[in-house]
Each structure stands twice: as C-alpha cells, then as structure tokens.
Amino acid sequence: MNFTQKDTDTLLKKGISQEQVFEQIMLFKQGLPYIDLRDPAIIGHGIYSYTQEEEQAFISHFEKQKESLDLLKFIPASGAATRMFKFLFEFIENYDPAQETVNAYINRNNAQELRLFFVGLDSFPFYKKVREQLKKTYDENDQADVNLNRIRFVKTMLEEEGLNFGNKPKGLFPFHKYKSHNASAFEEHLFEAALYTKTKATARLHFTISKEHYQKFKAQFSKSQKCIEQKTNTTFDITYSFQSPATDTIAVTKKNVPFREENGCLLFRPGGHGSLIQNLNEQEADIIFIKNIDNVVVHTYEKEVAYYKKVLAGKLLKLQQQAYDFLQQMDDHEISESEILDIVHFLQNEFSLKLATDFEKFSQKYQIEYLREQLDKPIRVCGMVKNEGEPGGGPFWVKHESGRISLQIVESVQIDPNNKHQQSIVAKATHFNPVDIVCGIKNYKGEKYDLTNFIDPKAGFITHKTVAGKPIKALEHPGLWNGAMAFWNTIFVEVPLITFNPVKTVNDLLKPAHQVK
Hints:
By secondary structure, this protein is of the alpha/beta class.
C-alpha cells in the first residue's frame, strides 16, 4: 500500500512504524492459527490443590519476607461502565410506556435481566442518588405512573442529561452500599491492597486507565484518601498509566485492505488488554499482584480474599528462591549430573515442564544451557477457580508450533469453534481463569526481565466488527495473561470461588459478595 502524507503524520503521532502496519496486514492475510489444545488442566494434571496446612506455610513464608520486598498491585481499569448496562440501554431504545407496561415488555422480550434489575432496585448502591435526581427533575404529582417512573429512572441513571453513569469509568461506579456511604471498585481495591501489599505502612497500586478518566480517578482518591488511610492505617502510593497509542492496530476490510474512514483517514483500534504488557513491563517491583478492576468484594469477605493472595505469593517466593539457587549454582561451578537431575525434577514437578524429546541425547554442556534457558524466566502463579459457568478463559495444556507443550490460559476466541476434537477438550475443563495472578519479574541478580521477550506473537486473534455499518476486521494483541505471558514459567493453583466476583452486568451487584449483610 502507499501511505499518504496524512497517513504518515498519523503513524508518527501514534508512534507506529510503517513496517508494523505491513506486518499487521500480513497477519490478516495469513490468518492467525487457532490454539492447539492437548488437554484441560485439572487437579493433578496441571493444577495444584493445597491443604490448609500447606496454605498456612505459604502465607507464613510470604509474611516473613514481605517487609523486605517491593510489592505492587497492578489493576487494569481502562473500561467504561457502558457494557454493564447493555440490557438497560436496549430498554431505553425499545420501550414505549404509551404502548405497553414494563411487565408486558419484559414478558414479550423474555427480558429476565431487566426483571431482576427492577426486583432488586432498592438494593443497588446508586438507588438513592437516582431517586434524589428524579425528585429534582419531576414534580411529585407527575410520578404516579409506575411504568413511566421506571423508564425515567433508567434514563436519569444512564443518560448524559441525568447522572450519566453509562459513561462513567467502571472503576469509579458505585459498587457497594454501606450504612454511611457507597464505595466504588477503585476504593475497594485500596482496602484490599492494605491487607497484603502493605510494607512499611505503605501500599503501592498501579491502575491502567483511559487518559480521559485520569482527573476523575485523582479526584476520587483525593476525596476518599484520608478516610481510607485512617481506617486501614496505611499510606497509599498510587500511580497510573494509559494504553499507549503505539499499541493500536490497523483495521482492514474483508479483502484485507486498510479501512479508511469517511474523511480518508486510516482506522486504528486499541489492541486489546494484551497491549498492557508494555505497561506491566514499566513497573518496578519484586512481586506484582494482577487483578481486574471489577473483581472486588464488600468488607465482609476481604480477609478471605487476601488470604489466598498471600497463599499464591508465598508459593511464588518459594519457587523463585529455588530457581535462583539453581541459577546461582550454574554460575558458581560446572554442575554435576545429579545437580542436572535436581533441576530437571524441579522444572517438571513445579512448572510442569515437558522436556525436549531428545534432551537425554544432548551433551552435558547443552543440557545445562537448555535448563538455564528454562529456569531463567519470569514466573507467574495463577489462581484458578472451579468452573461455574462464568464467561472467561481457562487453563489448558497447549501444543506450540515448535512442538513444545506447556500450560497456558486460553480464551474461547482462540479455540476453533468448528473443531469437534478441540471443543471436546473444552467440554472436559473443570476450572477457569479469574485473573488472579502473582508475578515475579526479576532474575536472580535482581534485574528486571524484559517482558516483551516472552510474548507469543501468534497468540493474538482477529475479530469481526462494524464501523458505520461497514464490516471490518480488527487485530488484538496476544492477551495480557494469554499469549503475552506464553513463555513465562507458569503454575496453576486452585482457589475458591469467593476470590472471583466480577461485575460484568449491573445485576452482578446483587450477588452476596457485593451486598453488605
């Protein structure tokens, strides 16, 4: 393709090279391969399950070391709340109170989500605020019609002329209702962080947010900082970053030609949460806890959630120390055959490493080089919960193009929907990924790994969208906890369902983990 001067200016502004655009177009043309699943990861075959005694040992190990460590909680939080209200926006679009009652609309459309919303209405933390706004807007004499009141409630709640919750950052939306106040997901992350990332009376958190929401997050922290710091006896060190425009990807037509908008400009789209590997790579910490913005609980359950974060962190520290010891041995002296066997057993037993098929035929020198390469990687310990039908990726054994088999977190979009064998493996899965990850990103010398060296570039995926009614193809980078961490050393640990309480729709706020008893 030939770039216009306007195209060149756009690329320069974003920090994207022409070569990157050509490479992305080539990926569209060649297509990205589906993941080759071998088995689901299950207890005893890729997922560890520990006794309470073992969990306590991991927690004790973490508690003994934490004050000497630099800990960080990393929270992807760039999403707007819009998707939480999809069924409510449909209600605004399609309901006419002059034509039918709300109940008739619900029955006609089998709109069960809408029914649940209205049944639980006064249990939502925003109920009182919306009602107050309605009283300011409408005269009391004009509030007798139940059906009119319901559509007005939803419009006042979501639309720009009202409270505009539909365009709020998800992290700042009121999630929980306490006696004296409401709490956002952002605030709940602070309370939770104080329980396991606090060292020397300070807890560090990093939020990846949309640039336009930066001042809103800062204002929220300024408003609640004093109260939360007093309640937790913790000082909070909060930083923010934005998804870089340089990680945007070109959109193409069905014929793989770059899509141009009506003004002639090339269309670029955000490259998905896999772009955040760049943000993660910029963090300075010994241990990083990763958790999504919408996965929080009310105070009642916070200590239980924190318990399992400490379990994962303690396990990570034990794994890391053993790997460091082996790497130190390799640097100190020429290791013996028995020491080689110790390293092999460690990699096989802890990281479920499948050795190269011809490993035993390697010379001792190449065996040591091979084992060093396997040991000298960032480590992630990932909590996995039993499959309860929630959407999301899951843990699987995956075969790579090289023939290597490893443990990976796989999204459904990466799996061929028409391949019966692959779908039969999916059907046998027992656990899924709640995004509950503890990361070690430094080598045994205390130097940070360059995390971009451990990405599987072919683990991205192509999605089909529409722009102004026209079909396009969009490219997403390998997901942050999928292909972006494909070549890390990985361990999966079973954790209970209480650790996974995402708010994908507003009705999720009615679940027990989001309701104060």
